[in-house]
Amino acid sequence: MLSRLDRLAYRSQHLSWLVNATVMQEAARLFTRTPRPVVSAAEVKALLRRRDELHARDLANVEAGYYPRELLFDFPIRQYARAFPRLVRDTPRVVRRMKQGNYHDIPAVDKERYPAYYRRNFHWQTDGYFSEHSAEVYELGVELLFRGTADVMRRQIIPPITRHVRASAGARQLRLLDVACGTGRTLHQIARTHPTMRLWGVDLSPAYVRIARKRLGDVAELALAVENGEALPFADGTFDIATSVYLFHELPRNARRNVVRELHRVVRPGGIVVIEDSAQAAESPEIATALREFPREFHEPFYADYLEDDLAGILREVGFAVMAIEPHLVAKVVVARRH
């Protein structure tokens, strides 16, 4: 059970993130002369309510034993402190790129290895996903963007995993694949919750996979590889669970379906997929304007199409049975089972 002190520390921690991130965002708007998105009072109220619901769910998940208490306070503060000066120094380059609309400003890369949709600097970030610098500042940038709730939203994929583990009690050691694992933040939280699970992760970015290897070096049953989710290098039915967090809004429509078909192929019958990504129009009409405003500031070329391309519908198209669709602040979690 969580103590009263735990709950107070949790609330204080998130209030601090909210205040500091808000101040930094407003300072950045002044510096870049970027107007605030026009969002109605009703949508602001809905967003505040959804944030409160997310925090309540986070605490309730620990009480239910879905993941450990330590994750509530697992901010890598030292890592963020090292990354912050680099993020600040890089801001003028990001702003210049944004004003120029220069989304092709990335290092020279092998065009045969990386699909065209990936060869760009999403969010105007320096080097796109192709450098150590990008990988080292990415998590802090995302946490500031979501004002301290990015990790909270990420770990909402864990309760469906834990329920599947409980339902599989006595079965062989379960295997989980995380597609687009990035710097390994999601795998880190899964490993802390299920330390005996065998984990795999794939990502298209060599730099991000290198960072993930450093972070997850103490995880015994782990394999990471630089691979494309549209063509996974695994045999049919290899995994009991497959996850993906914040991938699909950065894919064009055909690539989304290619990845889901691959998930269906590599997950065994009876296994599950748990996908988290941005909220969509299908389940979150109350914040539709806020969602549509997001790509106006950040280079997200496939986001508008993603908002209307319901994730649950894509999963059903390839043969999954959708079990749950859960909104979490500005994200959603879709859980599906392979027949």
- Average pLDDT score: 95
Categorize the overall geometry.
Answer: globular
* Secondary-structure content class: alpha/beta
CATH topology of the domain at 162-338: Rossmann fold
Level of helix content?
40-55%
Order of helices and strands: HHHHHHEHEHEEHEHHHEE
Number of helices: 12
Mind summarizing the main beta sheet? 7 strands, mixed
> How many distinct beta strands?
7
Determine and state the CATH class of the domain at 162-338: Alpha Beta
Quote the beta fraction. 15-25%
Note the gap between the termini. Answer: 36 Å
Q: Could you name the CATH homologous superfamily of the domain at 162-338?
A: Vaccinia Virus protein VP39
Radius of gyration: 19 Å
CATH architecture group name of the domain at 162-338:
3-Layer(aba) Sandwich
